[in-house]
Amino acid sequence: MQYSISIKPFGVHAVLVEWPNEVDENILNDILHFKHYLSTNCLPEDQWELVPAYNSLTLIRLSDTIDFKNFSVTLKNWYFETEKLNLKVQRYLCKLPVCYDLDFGIDLNEVAEKLKLSIRDIIKQHTENVYRVYGIGFLPGFMYLGGLPKSLEIPRRLEPRLKVAAGSVGLASRQTGIYPQESPGGWNIIGNCSVPIFSSKREVPCLINVGDQVQFYSISRAEHDLHMIESQVGIYKIEKTPINA
Amino acid sequence: MLKILKSGFFTTVQDKGRFGFRDKGVPVAGAMDNIALERANRLLENEEEAAVLEITMTGPTILFEEPTFIVLTGANMSATLNNKPVSNYKVYKIKNGDILSYGRLENGIRSYLAIKYGFETNVVLNSRSYSKSITSLVCLKDNYQIPYAPCDSFEPKISELKVDDYFDEVSLGVAKGPEFEMLTDKQLEQLFGSEFTISKDNNRMAYQLNEKIDVHDKSMLTSATLPGTIQFTPNGKLIVLMKDGQTTGGYPRILQLTDKAISILAQKKAGEIVSFKLF
Description:
The complex is a heterodimer.
Chain A: E1 6-10, E2 14-18, H1 25-42, E3 48-53, E4 56-61, H2 68-84, E5 91-99, H3 108-115, H4 119-128, E6 131-136, E7 143-146, E8 161-164, E9 168-172, E10 175-178, E11 183-185, E12 188-193, E13 213-219, H5 221-233, E14 239-243
Parallel strand pairs in A: 5-13
Antiparallel strand pairs in A: 1-2, 2-4, 3-4, 5-12, 5-14, 6-7, 6-13, 8-11, 9-10, 9-12
Helix pairs in contact in A: 1-2
Chain B: E1 2-6, E2 10-14, H1 34-43, E3 52-56, E4 61-64, E5 68-76, E6 80-81, E7 84-85, E8 92-94, E9 99-101, E10 107-115, E11 145-146, E12 171-176, H2 185-193, E13 196-202, E14 206-209, E15 223-224, E16 229-232, E17 238-241, E18 248-249, E19 253-257, H3 259-266, E20 273-278
Parallel strand pairs in B: 12-20
Antiparallel strand pairs in B: 1-4, 1-11, 2-3, 3-10, 4-9, 5-8, 5-10, 6-7, 6-9, 12-19, 13-14, 13-20, 14-17, 15-18, 16-17, 16-19
């Protein structure tokens, strides 16, 4: 589908391309198709970085400035070209193990009370749902996940915590996500994911890409501890299945 | 090897930065004052990518264990080599056993120590720049050792550079950011008609400014940010993202600093004044 896109300068080294201001899977797909086309045909990886998020794609030129006037015309043409092609961008469904033990899910009781759900129902709904990765940012490997069921929407905590453990799985308004590292945070913590999504020590540092789908599954405390050790020594593999784009 | 005898306030290894992982949330990092980095590496005829030490506020005491050549740039911290004063922007020959120490901060806040061929610490995700949760070290501590390739002879084409420094510059050149158009006439007047003070919340991630401008209630979807992006929070606060800044954010990006303005700001400390000028 063809959208009306807007192209704006973002300093002299970057250009921001924006799609309609909505959280929408079709928009995200269109952005990722365009990104794929640009990185394979137009903007070499060693000279450009392309950062997709929700309804935008930011193109950053690494060592040179951009002549915005000419570039924006070329970019529009490239977008039309992309639309003519029937591009397939490979995406994956990634299954992530979460331990919803009360030792990790330190806000589970409070969340259950506020949402008027049992802990079992929270876990059921959180794991049944499939989420889409709309962006990665804020911290290395932090995923902006879309698709939280309405029944799990809960405001962030009034007082943010100074320290939230790495791997904590949280809920905050329409979002759910995982803290990739220990950091301050105001989300309601319902569990812990034993697999680090990001590690600079791995050859492929981030297990997940923007556009992928994520589904959580509940594991026991013992499985969680085992996965932690397996991840530390580098033998744990997440379950990643290709989905047709 | 170079040995850190005393670590000083905050000293890190930095190069041009870490590129290629911003879509995974990895900050660019790299030298805060890129002008000082480039001048240092150019004087030593190093590769552009050569890594240097970025020294903040108070400097370390350093022992060199191999012969080499060094250049100091950026802030003037009254450095001495074996107790003799050394100047910035000048190539010095180093012998085994030489000791470099730093004294009073005269101007700026970030000083750079470059070495012939660059420091040879581990490359992590294409860069040697220290960065939280990316590299195992966040800053250098007492007794740490940093490897470098020894160099006995080097005839620099230029052995000293007379440069204009920019420590007294107050005006920061800016371009309109993607959400610039949201600003009201009042806010524009506040932005361009007044001066702003650097908050004590200033570091490699971001510089906050003390004075607020009129509040807003614009909400937007999270989108990319860059070093030098000025974010505008709903309560009217201005946050200038710097080299370790987050790669995405949900606050309107009203202005974008020029490369030179990033260097100027990187040499400012809490309480100093800046103003903005559209170019």
